[in-house]
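Hi everyone,

Forwarding the result from last night's run.
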Amino acid sequence: MKDMNALKMIVVAFAIAALASCATTTQKINDLVDDTVRNSENLTEEEWAERDGRLEELLRQYEANPDAFTEEERQSIDYALGQYYGAQVKQGLQDARRGIQDFLDQLPGFIDGFIDGTGLDTPTDSL
């Protein structure tokens, strides 16, 4: 009988630990996403990569036992992922816009140099 009670206590302890880790995983995902979204404009490529790795690890924990999470936790994680990837796309678009603007700023000098380099600005009888 004592062995049965001890076994029940061990099972209950594992169940509590599993539930606590789920809440922790959900909160860790939400905290990471909140911080990332808040600071997305200031993150370097290396910082994005580091955060991607951390998020990937947390998602592996979630995907290992998704049934241990409540429906509200799953929805919270889905929402957080939407925010995270939305911030990544937004930052990528802003980086692309800056790159295009830099290119456009350099374009007049490039065209002038190209024309000078080809000699197309010099009138010749051969053309």
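The chain has a mean pLDDT of 82.

Cheers,
N.
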